[in-house]
Amino acid sequence: TIVGNVRANGDAALLKYARTFDRLDGAIEIGVDEMRAASRQVPRDVRAAIKTAARNIRTVARQQVPRGWRVRVAPGVTVEQRIVPLDRVGCYVPGGRYPLPSSLLMTAIPASAAGVKDIVAVCPRPEPVVMAAALEAGVSRLFRLGGAHAVAALAYGTESVPRVDKIVGPGNRYVAAAKALVASD
Q1: What pLDDT, on the 0 to 100 scale, is given for residue 185?
Q2: With left for phi above 0 and alpha for psi between -120 and 50, is residue 147 left, alpha or beta?
Q3: Res. 96 pLDDT band, cuts 50 70 90
Q4: What's the rounded Cα separation, in Å, for the pair 2 and 20?
Q5: Which residues contact 153 (CB under 8 A, 6 or more apart)?
Q6: Do 114 and 65 touch, CB atoms closer than 8 A?
Q7: Proportion of the chain above pLDDT 90, given as a percent
């Protein structure tokens, strides 16, 4: 019901669910200035740990990116495999009892290393440490959204949330169910 409603009614349904389930009170999107201000609240040693983790994840992710190739199989006949990154990826970051900057780093950085230019993240209640991780990981846009409605917004797009090509990241049973529903689309 939630996925279908967000798909059919866009922001009107999305905002209704965000206010109900995420306790959204204010703007749905977090701007870069707000992320920077929140990041400054994070203790220096934690920011340093995020930076170190990001560097390590980036190093490994770059090694995992498949390489294209070309081979000449006969005169005038060439076979080529091209590796082309997706245009936009959505990263789901849970907002439960504890902030999970690691979920953001482990989803956004591999996408960036693969060449994805537009990385959209959703988190129902992003703590300052998650915002610091978003900045470090190169997230393009961050939204205060969670649950099935966030997955639907990423899958189909709304007036506020752009449609993505792939959704990654962990979540509860509602998130998993929504991801299964939208997977074929």
Answers
A1: 86
A2: left
A3: confident
A4: 12
A5: 6, 14, 122, 143, 145, 160, 161
A6: yes
A7: 97
Query: 181 pLDDT exceeds 90?
Result: yes
pLDDT of 55 reads 98
**How many residues can be counted in the chain?**
185
Which amino acid is residue 43, in one-letter code?
P
Q: pTM here?
A: 0.93
Q: What is the largest CA-CA distance in the chain?
A: 66
Amino acid at 151: V
Cα within 13 Å of Cα(178), Cβ side? 28
CA distance 47 to 96: 21
Which residue reads 């993505």 in tokens?
164
Q: pLDDT tens digits, residue range 18-36?
A: 999 999 999 999 999 999 9
Assign 3-class secondary structure to the chain.
CHHHHHHHHCHHHHHHHHHHHCCCCCCCEECHHHHHHHHCCCCHHHHHHHHHHHHHHHHHHHHHCCCCEEEEEECCEEEEECCCCCCEEEEECCCCCCCCHHHHHHHHHHHHHCCCCEEEEECCCCCHHHHHHHHHHCCCEEECCCHHHHHHHHHHCCCCCCCCCEEECCCCHHHHHHHHHHCCC
